[in-house]
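[Help] Beginner question about ligand-bound structures

Sorry if this is basic. My supervisor gave me a protein sequence and a SMILES string for coenzyme A and asked me to "get the holo structure". I don't really know what that means in practice or what format the answer should be in. Inputs are pasted below exactly as I got them.
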Amino acid sequence: MTAGTRILAMGHYQPSRVVTNDDLAATIDTNDEWIKSRVGIAERRIADGESVADMATFAAEKALAASGLTAADIDLVTVATCSSVDRCPNVATRVAARLGINAPAAYDLNTACSGFSYALGTADHAVRAGASRNALVIGAEKLSDVTDWTNRTTAVLFGDGAGAAIVTGVADGEQPGIGPVLWGSAPEKGDALRIEGWQPYIEQDGQTVFRWATTALAPFALETCEKAGIKPSELAAFVPHQANTRIIDGIVKRLGLGPEVVVAKDIIHSGNTSAASVPLALSKLIESGEVASGAPVLLFGFGGGLTYAGQVVRCP
Ligand SMILES: CC(C)(COP(=O)(O)OP(=O)(O)OC[C@H]1O[C@@H](n2cnc3c(N)ncnc32)[C@H](O)[C@@H]1OP(=O)(O)O)[C@@H](O)C(=O)NCCC(=O)NCCS
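Answer (accepted):
No worries, everyone starts somewhere. Holo just means with the ligand present. The predicted complex, written as structure tokens, is below.
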């Protein structure tokens, strides 16, 4: 049991293959100007043979190496994903086997694009309750597997990648680095975003999702800050799910964030990577030094379900 937890280290992985808007315009009726102005994406990374488990493992290896822990220290592995094609074994056990993590609790969690914050919340709870000492939390997606590359309304939006965090308990008297999770959903709107059936493709009612994201979410993001006892103006950075720069800008405005708060816009070069987008963007901000160690960062995921979840974390 511990009074609180923190993120010890992070890591990320993206495939090397870059697909630009012009590349897509060569095969479907779209163009760079439409994609940039409506969604904010310039390019995305698409897996070239890597599976969800491969990308999750590569991101986790980096997080583990940066944490100073070894595989022997990890006793819980959780992977947020909505695009893994294999039902069983789950991705978490595959990652554990590849990294030599012995006998961990290992589960996948699917709340689509809000998945990383849900998984981080469950890991925080497990460590606090004494069910785990050190947890490996991953968001990993290969959305290219569930994308209809002939459908311009979805093919331009998504990308592949993974991000990972090592979560551990804090010492007595030390400030927790992971704030209380706020999580929830709007199940009555669930059909607005679907990956259904066998050999499925992503389908969505884009405007329903857009309206919901730009109207319903800012109050929940604010409530997440309140739960952590922090004002939005005191944040060093905001890392929302990377679905659309217009959605991000709308939430930023409603939170009243000033230019001093770093806002993740990894979508420009990565597209929407669903459950991977928040840990990918956070890991990059840490790697680039844009957000200092100990700085408070609001994570906020949202998407299929329709689900949402967020928490304020301190940068490792
Ligand atoms: C998907 C989204 C970018 C579409 O933008 P939009 O402004 O709603 O665009 P619309 O669907 O109304 O389409 C507008 C026009 O652009 C066209 N269009 C759609 N996709 C296009 C593309 N890739 N290239 C060029 N034109 C396109 C449409 O056919 C339509 O043409 P029309 O006016 O002649 O009928 C936007 O709705 C969105 O971001 N929604 C949220 C989706 C999301 O974030 N999902 C993931 C959540 S995790």
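A couple of things worth pointing out: The chain has two domains: 5-169, 182-314. The CA atoms of residues 215 and 251 lie 8 Å apart. Feel free to follow up in the thread.
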